[in-house]
Specification:
By secondary structure, the chain is α/β, with parallel strands linked by helices. The chain has 4 domains: about 55 residues, 2-Layer Sandwich (Phosphorylase Kinase, domain 1); about 220 residues, Rossmann fold, CATH 3.40.50; about 210 residues, 3-Layer(aba) Sandwich (Dimethylsulfoxide Reductase, domain 2), CATH 3.40.228; about 120 residues, Beta Barrel (Barwin-like endoglucanases), CATH 2.40.40. The chain has a 6-stranded mixed beta sheet, covered by helices on one side. A 6-stranded mixed beta sheet has the order 23-25-24-27-22-26. A hairpin with a 7-residue loop joins strand 18 and strand 19. The structure holds ligand MGD (2 copies), iron/sulfur cluster and molybdenum atom (MO). The site of molybdenum atom (MO) has 3 residues, from loops.
Length: about 700
């Protein structure tokens, strides 16, 4: 921060896809962002930001920032662009789209967005109303959490569950497939405080992550076998006589059937599958049931294999079995987003989707661009991408790049930087960043509303996402109110300010205070399911789901169109093995014997920041963690350059030989740019869905690692 300039402070909200959704203080002078810090008054942010955001102003004024609309002047992907005016950019887009609609119909146009920006106005759903009105192909977005959400809704309903802040009262904390130190730092601080007060912290992770290293006990099941561990915990809690029978009798459905199902899922059975000893499983079951209040934090990574949904049903059942829900600080946390009063029907306008419009999965974008899975509809002739970078983030990179190279594809990219995806664009649109636009930031990791002030000028000609859609809508003659509302008016309409959760809070309050706790109990008194009160059809925790076939998704976001759990949903939770494993596919495993896990990078936010020198310095180059045994048999030494490959593709990284991973597993973190590296981790990822909610299967991939020349 520059001390010589008199600056003013404004409330900000971190717009990134991160459960912490920090409240920030922007320091601004002369319309320029000088610095940023964590809001000291916010109970979760507590005055600190993570390594990614602490010099956020440098991202705003980075020399590579996209400042003007541009058009492609060289071959696709060559990086040759020339500056044009906004009028030329928007006219080109509208002219091309009208021609495509005339020839192929509107479904030949498709949107592609995700949570690059988590704002209600400029974020995930920002363009939905526009593309629904256009009649474009609906892009189903199931990148993150939809398997988990389906399993959660089936078991306990749309409840925020255990408040992340209540963990300060927990005596036993299980963090399951979540690397909190990197991905949920402000929750980790609360967990650490509880640990200092005597709580035992257990981390269940496929490898010794930073978080696992800070735990009292690290349990390392093989990737994709957590369902077996969870079923064996159910078995052992019942066998050891640790069930809270009164809780089960009053507030759950299907205990007898679950008991029967679990009777054969013994700790010995699970030990074979998971690699965790039967003694350890019994011990975990005993401690989880008896050390109350016991808390479980499920990470998104728990869903990233074929049986992820069933795993999450089993884990979500545990606190009802042990009665942990009776206590403040007891229960399980998925995404507290469920009790936030957002009006997604107003934001997304699903009512504007013409009947019969086809749906394409964002996880299948490569295939879709190459003409696969489009039914009898037209090819995709234009894609508009904003808030997302599928080339690094979506599976099957090689197919995506082949699709984006199509000469007849018209790609529009709204971006901050010329990302791996934007580098293939025909038209580039410069988008505003954090301090440059008003918004409220959706949070999926705590129970606060968060406000972000527009307090800095956008550099160059950048404009906010919503302004891009307003301008396009005006050119296309869309008359609906949504397309005329200012960003402030959007916020008035997008939040249900009359909901009891907002009691005493309105947009003016948000502007004055920057954040507001929802009125859903305090972290010190909230035990939402002490007396059942599960928002399920039965009002109980449903171990067994009646009529699962008829399960209807709540009228929620376009993001969740993939919710239907499938015709043959098992009424009870169980272990469902990974698709790519030695047991399920021994032939494949002979050629590709190593299971790869590709979690988040500590210093990048998905692919954001991976182009910034200081973050690259903290993060280091793309590495591949490999065990001494696996390295030895392949003649790989520490620091060697290695190639990680399967039939879908390959990427390169530097070998780090370590006991942090067990034999059979390799770890390479996500987000490195393809432009700056050879391939990305998603070159090898499968497009296949998990068992529920069309979830991705990023932890369900077999590879081989070899020395690279
Ligand atoms: N192998 C593997 N793959 C994964 C995962 C994994 O664990 N392993 N995780 C998955 C998960 S959980 C997720 S959520 C997805 C995330 O995937 P994405 O959401 O695609 O993530 P990012 O790479 O951060 O892409 C966001 C892009 O939006 C841009 N952006 C940011 N803010 C704005 C804005 O205001 N306006 C505009 N126009 N652009 C903006 C950024 O510059 C960036 O290029 O990745 C998934 N992919
Ligand atoms: N620094 C940083 N923070 C982020 C992000 C980022 O990119 N960087 N991304 C944000 C986003 S979009 C999301 S969704 C969240 C995700 O946050 P997390 O849920 O923490 O996701 P990951 O870091 O991908 O994986 C967490 C841990 O799960 C382990 N794991 C993977 N597969 C399995 C498995 O099958 N079983 C078990 N037991 N463990 C497994 C991995 O080894 C990893 O240590 O983080 C958010 N925060
Ligand atoms: S990325 Fe997460 S931890 Fe970092 S500042 Fe943003 S919300 Fe906070
Ligand atoms: Mo995510």
């Amino acid at each position: 921060m520059n001390d010589h300039v008199k600056s003013l402070s404004f409330y900000g909200g971190c717009p990134h896809d991160c459960p912490d959704t920090c409240s920030m203080i922007f320091e601004v002078a002369d319309g320029k962002l000088l610095g940023v810090k964590g809001n000291p008054d916010h109970p979760m942010t507590r005055g600190t930001l993570c390594v990614k955001l602490k010099n956020y102003e440098e991202r705003h004024y980075h020399p590579d920032r996209l400042l003007h609309p541009m058009k492609r002047v060289g071959p696709k992907g060559s990086g040759q662009f020339e500056r044009i005016t906004w009028d030329e950019a928007l006219d080109t887009i509208v002219t091309r789209w009208k021609a495509i609609i005339d020839q192929y119909g509107p479904q030949a146009i498709a949107p592609y967005s995700y949570l690059g920006n988590q704002g209600l106005v400029h974020g995930l759903n920002g363009g939905d109303a526009f593309f629904n009105r256009l009649g474009a192909t609906v892009m189903e977005r199931t990148f993150c959490g939809e398997g988990s959400c389906t399993a959660w809704l089936l078991t306990v309903g749309p409840t925020a569950g255990l408040d992340p802040e209540s963990y300060i009262h927990s005596k036993y904390i299980v963090i399951w497939a979540c690397n909190s130190v990197s991905t949920n730092l402000h929750h980790w601080a609360i967990v650490k405080d509880a640990q200092k007060k005597g709580a035992k912290v257990v981390v269940i992770d496929s490898y010794a992550s930073r978080t696992a290293k800070g735990a009292d006990w690290h349990i390392a099941p093989k990737p994709g076998t957590d369902g077996a561990l969870a079923m064996a915990l159910i078995n052992s809690i019942i066998e050891q006589g640790l069930v809270d029978q009164a809780y089960v009798d009053n507030y759950t459905v299907g205990f007898e059937e679950l008991k029967e199902r679990a009777s054969t899922r013994t700790p010995e059975w699970a030990a074979e599958i998971t690699g965790v000893s039967a003694d350890d499983i019994r011990k975990l079951a005993y401690e989880l049931a008896t050390a109350q209040p016991a808390a479980i934090r499920m990470g998104v990574a728990l869903e990233r294999h074929y049986g992820g949904g069933q795993t999450i049903r089993a884990v979500s059942s545990l606190p009802a079995l042990t009665g942990a829900w009776r206590h403040v600080g007891g229960g399980v946390t998925q995404f507290p987003v469920w009790e936030h009063p957002y009006k997604f029907d107003v934001i997304c306008r699903p009512d504007l989707i013409p009947e019969g419009t086809r749906v394409v999965s964002n996880l299948h974008i490569g295939r879709a661009l190459l003409g696969e899975g489009l039914g009898d509809g037209p090819p995709i002739m234009s894609l508009m991408c904003w808030n997302s970078n599928p080339v690094t983030q979506a599976p099957e990179t090689d197919k995506i790049v082949e699709g984006l190279m199509r000469e007849d594809l018209f790609l529009v990219s709204a971006e901050h930087f010329i990302s791996d995806t934007a580098s293939y664009a025909d038209i580039l649109l410069p988008a505003s960043m954090g301090a440059e636009m008003e918004d409220m930031i959706l949070s999926w990791g705590h129970l606060y509303l968060t406000y972000n002030t527009k307090c800095a000028e956008s550099p160059g000609e950048a404009i906010p996402n919503n302004e891009i859609f307003r301008r396009l809508a005006a050119r296309l003659g869309f008359e609906e109110d949504n397309f005329k509302w200012s960003d402030s008016e959007c916020l008035e309409h997008y939040v249900d300010w009359s909901s009891p959760a907002c009691d005493g809070v309105d947009l003016d309050y948000m502007r004055k205070h920057g954040f507001a706790r929802l009125k859903v109990g305090t972290p010190d008194d909230r035990a939402p399911h002490r007396n059942g009160n599960f928002p399920t059809p039965s009002g109980k925790c449903e171990f067994k789901v009646e009529g699962a076939k008829n399960f209807v998704a709540p009228p929620f976001r376009q993001m969740y169109l993939g919710f239907q759990p499938g015709e043959d949903l098992d009424p009870l939770p169980d272990y469902v093995g990974a698709r790519e494993s030695h047991t399920n596919d021994p032939e494949l495993a002979k050629r590709f014997p190593l299971n790869i896990v590709s979690p988040k990078s500590h210093a990048f936010l998905n692919s954001c920041y991976a182009n910034m020198k200081d973050k690259q310095h903290v993060q280091g180059e793309q590495f591949v963690l490999i065990s001494p045994v696996d390295a030895g048999v392949r003649g790989i030494r520490e620091g060697d350059r290695v190639r990680v490959a399967n039939d879908r593709g390959a990427f390169k990284g530097v070998a780090r030989i370590t006991d942090d991973v067990t034999s059979g597993i390799v770890v390479a973190t996500l987000g490195y740019w393809r432009q700056l590296n050879e391939g990305t981790v998603n070159s090898i990822s499968s497009h296949q869905f998990g068992d529920m909610g069309h979830s991705p299967t990023f932890s369900d991939n077999l590879v081989e690692v070899s020395l690279s020349n």
